[in-house]
Design brief:
Layout lengths: L3 E4 L9 H13 L9 H5 L4 H12 L4 H19 L6 H10 L4 E5 L3 H11 L7 E4 L11 H10 L6 E5 L2 H9 L3 E4 L8 H6 L2 E2 L3 H9 L4
Parallel strand pairs: 1-2, 1-4, 2-3, 4-5, 5-6
Helix pairs in contact: 1-4, 3-4, 4-6, 5-10
Length: 216
């Protein structure tokens, strides 16, 4: 059985991807920019540096860091009233509590946004560590953020479960040597993700059931 669990946040713990998608339009409008099709998908799961470069490339500008900051502000505003937990999150956390399994949040979002979401949802005290991709050397699909989370929990990657919804996140877990499970949100599983992941689950309840059965 795994000795620790590392959670991605957006799209895995919280139904935030539609909120991020909604926030792109007012964020870009601040700079007189229209939304280029595919921008949200291209930025999903990336950290600040990669997101900035993607905005610059797709919008044909050189101040993507300012757009990214505006996006964070618009998203934070919406999350205050629209944040919703994904089905099975509380039940999974309850099971982990009952079996003494420590856990961390490892998200490409800022520390402030991670902590705000956890506080809003009332589950901040249910995680032993939080790791932000901001300032981490390499963005997913490199495993840096998950390796940092494993170190914070004091567990070897091979004994830690990574839960992810994005392609980049699943690949990062695989590259880092983690037991990786995909719980798809907006991105359906592919042949590659099925090869990288130990399992693909329809919800976090299914993850709980696999853990309870000793299958992970």
């Amino acid at each position: 059985m795994v000795r620790a669990v590392i959670f991605d946040m957006d799209g895995l713990m919280f139904d935030t991807e539609p909120i991020w998608g909604k926030a792109w339009h007012p964020a870009l409008a601040r700079f007189g920019l229209a939304y280029p099709e595919g921008l949200a998908d291209a930025c999903r799961g990336t950290n600040g540096a990669v997101r900035t470069a993607t905005v610059n490339r797709m919008c044909g500008i050189d101040y993507g860091n300012k757009v990214a900051a505006a996006l964070d502000e618009e998203t934070a505003r919406l999350l205050k009233t629209e944040l919703r937990m994904k089905p099975g999150l509380v039940e999974l956390l309850d099971w982990l509590d009952g079996h003494g399994v420590p856990r961390a949040v490892a998200s490409s979002s800022s520390v402030e946004m991670i902590e705000s979401n956890l506080q809003t949802a009332g589950i901040a005290d249910r995680f032993q560590a939080t790791v932000s991709g901001v300032g981490i050397g390499h963005s997913k699909p490199e495993p840096d953020i998950f390796l940092a989370a494993a170190a914070a929990l004091g567990v070897e990657p091979s004994r830690a479960l990574v839960l992810e919804d994005s392609y980049a996140g699943v690949e990062a877990g695989h590259r880092g040597g983690f037991v990786t499970v995909m719980v798809p949100d907006m991105m359906p599983p592919t042949d590659k993700t099925r090869a990288w992941a130990a399992a693909t689950c329809g919800s976090l309840l299914e993850v709980r059931d696999l853990l309870a059965a000793g299958a992970l």
